[in-house]
Amino acid sequence: MADNNGNSGDKLVYFLIGAGIGAVTALLFAPKTGSELRSEIADATKKGLDLARDTGRDVGERAQEYYHTGVERAADLTSRSREAVTDLTQRGKDLITNQKAQFAAAIEAGKQGYREAKSSDSVRSSAAVEES
Fold this sequence. Notes:
This protein is an all-alpha fold. 91% of the residues lie in helices and 0% in strands. It has one domain (8-126). The protein contains two helices and no strands. Helix 1 packs antiparallel against helix 2. It is rod-shaped, with a radius of gyration of 43 Å. The model has no long low-confidence stretch (mean pLDDT 84).
């Protein structure tokens, strides 16, 4: 399937090559003297070189713009990614801190419950011994 988004730079190059071939062919078959023909070929060649140089400069400028745009987008994406990772890391640290606090509170409650159970068992044992 043909690519509808073809590179316009390639199309321009093909057009220029075709135009150059057509111009040279027209000059070769025109009824002129040799010196006039050579002069016209030299002029057409100079114009073609100037056009190619200008086109090359334009393509280079466009490529440079695309490069800078890509660099800016990559920097922006990197910055946003870094912020997202930092935020996610901070949320993870906060979650772990909360879990540690809950775990420590649960352990302390367990220890306190054990102490209370142990002291109530001692009181019961003492009361049972006194009753006997």
